[in-house]
UniProtKB/TrEMBL annotation:
GO terms for biological process: cell surface receptor signaling pathway. The chain crosses the membrane at residues 12-37, 57-75, 82-112. One of its GO terms (cellular component) is plasma membrane. InterPro entries: CD20-like, MS4A. Keywords: Membrane, Transmembrane, Transmembrane helix. It holds the Pfam family CD20. Belongs to the MS4A family. It is a multi-pass membrane protein. This is Membrane spanning 4-domains A13. It is found in: Membrane. It comes from Ursus maritimus.
Length: 143
């Protein structure tokens, strides 16, 4: 009986590297949000809690993206059916988490736009910064 071979393209290592970099970028954005949240009350007397930071999205999603990238790299080196199926499941989970992140960010922009209070300058700068990241990010089209 012929043995089945796993045909895996060489791009999986590149996909894994992109997922790891996406996870690190999201984690860095979460650290920026945390710093701004903690420094705003002392500087301006007001605080603004981003919805994505309140849900902890930057921290648990970055871990999921990094694990997904690691498994994509491992499955190219050690080709087994178990690793391949686990990698596919983790990649689907990462895609769902990316969609959830886009929904959270869209909801954040809507809530911010509908607020009637006058914004303080870090809010305006951060919203414009994240709008630019979302519109020019090549990693948002990877999923």
């Amino acid at each position: 009986m012929p043995r089945r071979r796993l045909w895996i393209r060489e791009e999986t290592r590149l996909l894994g590297a992109v997922q790891i970099m996406t996870g690190l970028n999201i984690h860095g954005v979460g650290l920026i949000w945390t710093y701004l949240f903690l420094s705003q009350p002392s500087a301006f007397g007001k605080s603004y809690l981003p919805l994505s930071a309140a849900t902890g999205y930057p921290y648990w999603s970055s871990a999921c993206f990094i694990f997904s990238g690691i498994f994509a790299i491992i499955v190219e080196r050690r080709r087994s059916t178990f690793l391949l199926s686990y990698t596919i499941i983790v990649n689907i989970l990462s895609a769902c988490i990316a969609v959830l992140g886009l929904l959270l960010l869209s909801l954040e922009f809507i809530i911010y736009t509908l607020s009637t209070r006058t914004p303080i300058w870090p809010e305006v700068k951060m919203v414009k910064f994240f709008q630019n990241i979302c519109s020019y990010s090549p990693s948002s089209s990877c999923f």
